[in-house]
Hints:
By secondary structure, chain A is an alpha/beta fold. Chain A is built from 16 helices and ten strands.
Amino acid sequence: MADPSTCPPLTPSSIHSAYHKIKRYIHRTPLQTSTSLDAIASSPDPTVYLSDSPPSVAPKFRLWFKCENFQKIGAFKARGAFHAVTRLVEELGLEEVRRRGVVTHSSGNHAQALALAAHTFSIPSYIVMPTISTASKIAGTRLYTPNVIFSGSTSQEREAVVADVIRDKGAILVPPYDHPDIILGQGTAGLEMEEQFREASGTGTDANASGAATAPAPALDAVIAPLGGGGLLGGTATYFSDKPGTLVFGAEPSFQGGDDGRRGLLTGKRVEHVKTLTIADGLRTPVGITNWSIISDKRKVEGLYAVTEDEIKMAMRLVYERMKVVVEPSGCVGLAVVLFNAEFREMVVQKQKQGKEDVWDVGIVFSGGNTTMKALSKLFADDDVQGGEPEVAKEREEGTVAMDGTRDVEDVAG
Amino acid sequence: MADPSTCPPLTPSSIHSAYHKIKRYIHRTPLQTSTSLDAIASSPDPTVYLSDSPPSVAPKFRLWFKCENFQKIGAFKARGAFHAVTRLVEELGLEEVRRRGVVTHSSGNHAQALALAAHTFSIPSYIVMPTISTASKIAGTRLYTPNVIFSGSTSQEREAVVADVIRDKGAILVPPYDHPDIILGQGTAGLEMEEQFREASGTGTDANASGAATAPAPALDAVIAPLGGGGLLGGTATYFSDKPGTLVFGAEPSFQGGDDGRRGLLTGKRVEHVKTLTIADGLRTPVGITNWSIISDKRKVEGLYAVTEDEIKMAMRLVYERMKVVVEPSGCVGLAVVLFNAEFREMVVQKQKQGKEDVWDVGIVFSGGNTTMKALSKLFADDDVQGGEPEVAKEREEGTVAMDGTRDVEDVAG
């Protein structure tokens, strides 16, 4: 990995530079909206949003979904991997990086993202995977690299194999999240999100768009991203760090202590070990060290909120049935917080009472879409979420989603 | 319903007029692409697209997915319903239509589409639904109309109740597919598809786009739409009827004789009764009379092809896992034909051998996305589609989908 001491600083302008480097290799994923999810999120109790319960106070939202589920390899991880690789090439020269290759241990999205990024530059990549990895993930990684190397499944065993590869091949380690280059790469999702929000609000940064005098650019009131290792949230918070009008929040699963970030903030100390089998499998890792330095900085991250497994599943169901898009469980935690976390919702109500914004524009990062029909089917098999609510409400479907990033067309009374 | 004798003729220019009328009420749904589905479709045997079997002849495709699953009420039906209602208003005057109201019998997407369209113009709508309809569908329809009227479940019983409503209220019948206004409305999906294909190919119809001399506009080589009652396929075929460069095909489920259109073509006679429980539940109806006059016209529809339940499910799984979008089974039959129907694929191979086009640009209509997690989970529960293929291939994911209608960014070798 590029020497952290020579890395660009963790600032918004470094994210602009990162974006310039990786732009041609990644998708500019769409920023979508959903009338029905706005209505549900803005109702007093989203769990029973069609009930006849008396109206009570509710926060008001316009939600903007950044669809990294449509990103290359199906997740935001492509951003960090391409940035890390382009930075290595810049620092060491292409020939040197090609000679040595890159290495990581992962059986998830980072493995594939790194293998793809390396493959793009004809750089060999060595991916250390536990022997117990599923055949499909091994085969998937092999599409971009012939060098899948097996190890035991504990971190010590995996790290020992990585150390061997580094010693034998001189390969350069590209860690999944705990490195400035990765964080800056992931932060480009925040940059694009803001850019697209402005375009949709009619004040794109494109100077050609209007010759009129420049009004203050509209800002997202809040952004919420999933928190696992902290690359995505750390990068997003870094990008918005000089934009006090946009509050940045993190979302975690609470199952079996998966909310290590939130717990760390309570004690003022990073939680180093996490062992959870939450369905949000991309968020099972503890927050990284560099990432923690950003996330624990109150000026950068306004707060962390956690949700239950059932809340994640309920959010996921709404995303499928209303927006008709496939998002993996880890990608749904941000929306789950907005819909179901009472503390978060109360906080927004209070801020809306005080502030001038009646309705908050909230950017939610759908971090990835890598799941299978088999996994989905299993996840919802013994579910009998009845009471009519979700299914009844589904039928309300009407202004599903405007794919061009603009607001949905509303019904127009004749 | 507007008197068929005063309806606009079934021509492309009537579809342009229809589009002009309904444009403000519907979504311009995106036209998406997928590098990985192109690769799968263009491989010799898409059922084992990662096998090491020796290469054989395969058709070559670039696929363009028209995402009506993102349409209002989650299906293309909104187009026909809005067109039928605006035509009624035009012909009888808004006050008259408001006084009388509109009526239909359906428990599916047409019921909701008509209720929404009527509601938009403050026109009362009466929706006759069988008492055995699921609670969620009844509740969904009730969001747009208080007038849900119950009947028995046979067609005779339902039609008797409709007749009562017409007699008592003077309400105007809006049938689900067998009417020119409905057909013309659904045809706007074809119009948009062509428009978006041209935009993506860099030669939009927008005169501002280029001042250069006009080259011949690029054309889709083929378009394939699901065939149930025939509104969508009939409208699409009508739209392309003056464009011989674009062949129009229909796709049907073969289960329990669901391929009534194909069987009708073989005998030269419309099949009047169909009783199938295919998972493609939107395609269980026989082709309508007006629709048949279009579909059986060889100058308008080049051919009809049928697929099995397993082929529909396999296509559906690919759409979810690769494109990350939710499409209902009925919406996946077109893709299933392209991937798995040997007769269709051989036909394309032969035409490609003869013609000048090496790769066909094929527009596929994803007709709707109205399914539930519960239904999905049930559909794939006892599935153990192993052999590695679909799951292994899934991981190939790389250039999932370009949402702006342009081609995906391909890997760029360094």
